[in-house]
Each structure stands twice: as C-alpha cells, then as structure tokens.
Write a structure and sequence with these properties.
It is a single chain. The longest helix has 18 residues. Helix 2 runs antiparallel to helix 4 and helix 5 packs parallel to helix 7. 29% of the residues are buried. The chain folds into three domains: 156 residues, no CATH class; 137 residues, Lipocalin, CATH 2.40.128; 80 residues, no CATH class. It is an alpha+beta fold and 399 residues long.
Length: 399
C-alpha cells in the first residue's frame, strides 16, 4: 500500500517434528516411492502437496537449539521424497548412481513446483523464478545437491508464508533488513535527456517517480512506483511495485510474480545499477541511474506552477496514512484526518490482538473508498460506509 503487501521471504532453516500420525503418513509415502505402483504425475503431486501442507511446515521452532538439531533429518527428507518420485534421485534400493539427464531433472522439478504452487493458490513465490533464472544464467551449478537445495528452499519459503504467525515474523525480519540509502536529487539514465527519475523517502521505502519533460507544451507526465531496498549481506535487493498493485490488492485480485520486479542493486554515491533476478522482473526497463548534473534545471520545472503535471496512472492513485493511535486490551484506535478516532475491536479478526505499534497499519484511500489496512499481515477491510463499519463492529469516537 504505498506499503507493499507483496512479500519476499528471507531464507533460513526451520526445525520440524513429526507426530505419530504424520510419521504414519510419511511411511505411506515412503512405501509408495519405493514401489512406484501408481501413476507418475499423481504420485508427484501427492508428495509435493504433502510436503507443503504437513503441519510441521507451518510452525517455527521456539524450543531451543537442541530441538533444531534433532529435527534436521525430517527437514531434509521432504526434498528427497520429491526428487525420488521424479526419479531425479535413485530409489533407496538402487545401486547405480549415474546422472543421465540433469537438465531434464531440473525441468521436471521446476514444472512440478510451479504447477503445485499454482494449484494451492501460491502464485506469489518469486523464489521459484529467481532459482530458475540462476540456473539458466549459470548451468554449471546443476547437480543433485543443488537440486535438493532448490526444493528445500521452496518448501522453507512456503513455510514462512503459510500462516499468519509465520508471515508476521517474516515481515518483522524484513523490516529489520530494510535499508534507506541517500537517494536525494534527480537521477537520469543518460544525459542529456528529457526523462528523469526522483526518489521520495517514506516510512517503509521510497516512492520512485519516472518523469517525462515536454518543454514546448510545458508539461510533465509521470509514473509513480513504490520501491524498497533490502540488505542481504553480499547484495542489496530492490523490490519495485507498479501502480496497479494496490488496486489489485483491494479488489482481491491474486497477486502474480509479474506484479513486482526483483532486482539486484549496486548502490554507489552517484550511481545505482540494477540487474533483474527473475524473468518476470524485466517489465521494468531500468538498468542504471546516475545523479544528474542538471538537477537545478529539472527541479525548476517540477516547482514551476505553469508546468502541468499528469499522472499516467491517475486511476490507481491512493493515499495511505500510518495512523494507529492507541492500543488497549480489547481494541485498536486509529486517528482519522478530521481528528476523530476509529475504535476497532480486536475480536474483529484473530490476528488483531497481536498487532504492535511497529507495524504498518493505517487507513488507505483509493478513489472514493476507504480501507483499514494491516500491511504486515496482508489484511484490509473496507470502511467506506457506516453500514460497513457497523458490520465490522467499528465505532467512531470523538477525541
């Protein structure tokens, strides 16, 4: 929402444990893998779905280092199960170990992961496109150990997005890794140019505006994106969201990988370099920006009242205010622009009792509609009319 609801999970290791019922389920799948009695594709989808929905994948360990060490083997079994079904790994009873068609193995694994994620409404796992792109750019990485890592990574990312609790933890980690470089001034792809870019820092990232200048018509047209920078240690990840993203979110349209661009970013004092991480990121034709030597010239046009300024995606314009005012035992209070307070009962949704001041929560105005938004939790509620507020149990209080 000018606070993005599009998330990229950090990758990590999680501890899983099996209950007695889950152990029996695993034994059934293990026997099926050994026998290869049912159809190939049905077995493949069954095993991947089992791995995605096994209860341990929706829990994060909070019980100490010893438990994490004991649970390492169940974690590793899941990608092995998937690859054995696809015959990318030999069966447990097999004696030969030659790799005959590693490219075909990768193709089948990616195809199955894509189709399975789409089947369970997980179109928004950009890690799949990123991993596939890395393999295409550097085929020398292809081997069975790498393939195990690919499947494991996808399952771990799913685990971090699979429940509200895990998603909230993931978003908290994301905020901790977000960086705010000094991007003041005017930026250009080349000079001289009538196209320039400008960043505006906000609470959870930056607005990124691309302007086109027409001096003859005394006009400026622009497109506004939302961009955030994440520190990944050796690299910086830039996530760019297009104007239509918020419209799709509030209209409950599924968010697809191409709805955001994931770019590796190199940040220097006067230069930004971008490299797409996924094939879906190439819609943003942005490779390098440098600080303009004509900053005063462009800034004068921005400040000139006689220059018309037109947003090319005006239908997608919105405003978002972080306005969480008070937390009480049973309610959240949001301060509206007119000074009134919205009392939101925590009983309205199971996640609301856990909301903290550090989260991105507020009111989004889109066209003639208003939404109460909990961005870190991917929640939004329309509160445009009195009837909608009353149905949710929301009350308007004077200060």
């Amino acid at each position: 929402m000018k606070q993005s609801s599009f998330r990229r999970a950090k990758l990590g290791v999680f501890a899983f444990s099996r209950t007695e019922r889950e152990t029996k389920d695993y034994d059934i799948y293990k026997n099926d893998i050994e026998g290869f009695h049912t159809s190939f594709w049905m077995k493949s989808e069954s095993v991947v779905t089992f791995c995605l929905f096994a209860p341990q994948l929706s829990r994060l360990s909070t019980e100490g280092e010893g438990r994490e060490q004991r649970a390492t083997m169940p974690l590793l079994l899941f990608p092995l199960m998937v690859l054995m079904v696809l015959k990318a790994l030999p069966r447990l009873s097999a004696k030969g170990g030659d790799v005959k068609d590693i490219k075909g193995d990768y193709h089948r694994v990616f195809l199955l992961l894509y189709s399975t994620c789409q089947a369970v409404h997980l179109q928004t796992l950009p890690v799949l496109s990123q991993l596939e792109g890395e393999v295409r750019r550097n085929p020398s990485v292809m081997c069975r150990f790498h393939l195990i890592g690919v499947v494991n990574m996808v399952l771990v990312v799913y685990g971090r997005l699979s429940t509200p609790e895990n998603l909230s933890r993931t978003n908290a980690e994301e905020r901790a890794h977000q960086v705010f470089p000094d991007l003041s001034g005017i930026w250009v792809e080349e000079e001289p140019s009538t196209v320039f870019w400008q960043f505006e820092e906000i609470a959870n990232g930056h607005y990124l505006r691309r302007y086109t200048l027409d001096n003859e018509r005394r006009s400026l047209t622009y497109t506004e994106y939302h961009i955030r920078f994440m520190d990944e240690g050796d690299e910086v990840l830039a996530i760019v969201m297009p104007p239509r993203l918020i419209r799709d979110i509030v209209q409950d349209i599924p968010i697809l990988p191409e709805h955001a661009a994931y770019l590796t970013c190199s940040i220097e004092e006067d230069c930004l370099r971008f490299e797409p991480r996924t094939a879906e990121s190439k819609w943003l034709h942005l490779r390098q920006l440098t600080r303009s030597r004509q900053e005063d010239f462009f800034q004068q046009r921005l400040d000139d009242e006689h220059y018309t300024k037109t947003n090319l995606f005006a239908d997608d314009e919105y405003t978002f205010r972080l306005c969480l005012h008070t937390l009480t035992e049973d309610a959240l209070f949001f301060e509206m622009e007119d000074g009134e307070l919205l009392r939101v009962p925590k009983s309205m949704h199971p996640q609301l009792p856990d909301v903290q001041f550090s989260e991105n929560a507020g009111v989004l105005c889109f066209k003639d509609s208003q939404y109460l938004v909990f961005d870190d939790r991917n929640l939004h509620f329309e509160i445009t009319t009195e009837e909608q507020r009353k149905k949710l149990g929301i009350e308007v209080r004077e200060r």
